[in-house]
Amino acid sequence: MHSKLLDELNENGYIVIEDFLTAEEVDSLYQAGRALCLDAPQNNRKIFSTIKQEDAQGKELYFMESGDKVRYFFEKGAVGDEGQLLVDPMIALNKVGHALHVEHPAFNAITFSNRVREICWQLNYNKPAVCQSMYIYKNPGVGGEVTPHQDSWFLHTDPNSAVGFWLALEDCTLQNGCLQFIKGSHKSGVHRRYLRNPDKDASELMVYDRAAPIYPQSSFTPMQVSKGTCIIIHGNVVHKSEPNRSQKSRHAYTFHVIETENNVKYSEDNWLQAPKDKPFPVLFERKA
């Protein structure tokens, strides 16, 4: 089947769909995200940072075991050495993940909506499954940068099939750290992998298989979008976001879809593994 959406994804590596969510849906997800701030644990606070691996989630089972749970990851500047909060709880979180699409009704409703199924249909999926979801806060002042990466580093399948749905719940600007893409970069393969450490005696449970590539700043195109916009992200397109230097947050809900048919294999050394009794939930199955 041929579709304009597929052409655009194959050409640029991303698609911008404005007004994907209604104003009511944006508000519902945004309020759910705010409520999660108050649900966050008072102790055992984990910091999620993509910059310094050595003290971050690589060593932490809390992260690796979050695939079928709702877990809370704090910003670096938000938690003191003793685990005490240094900022208002409403701006302390970096993200919540990675099973909101299963465990939380508001996020479940959007993730498994007919709109999402229709897009996956047009992108030629045969049996797409949702493997993970996150609520990302990108709070003012403390919202850290997300370094350039391809989602396939983390959600690798052979052949590559991961696609991200990124839903803006607030307006995204250069100042508050909008997404930035290298257009067409998905055509150059997967540049590195984030793997379960084959060395079982090592203290690091997760390792990168090679150094981070250097991507020139001038290659990135910023996507300043209004709330309600959905950005479809090819698993191999290079993207990033700068720190939030504004006074406004940049909340987003994002989830990833993979193909589970056509001999597509989900890599056994990905950090995220579905429990045996809880396979990734399927959006639809295309009948021949």
Automatic annotation (TrEMBL):
Pfam families given in the database record: PhyH
Key words of the record: Dioxygenase, Iron, Metal-binding, Oxidoreductase
Keyword Oxidoreductase: yes
UniProt-listed Gene3D superfamilies: q2cbj1_9rhob like domain
Entry keyword RNA-binding: no
Cofactors, names only: Fe cation
Entry similarity comment: Belongs to the PhyH family. PHYHD1 subfamily.
Name assigned to this protein: Phytanoyl-CoA dioxygenase domain-containing protein 1
Originating species: Drosophila mauritiana (Fruit fly)
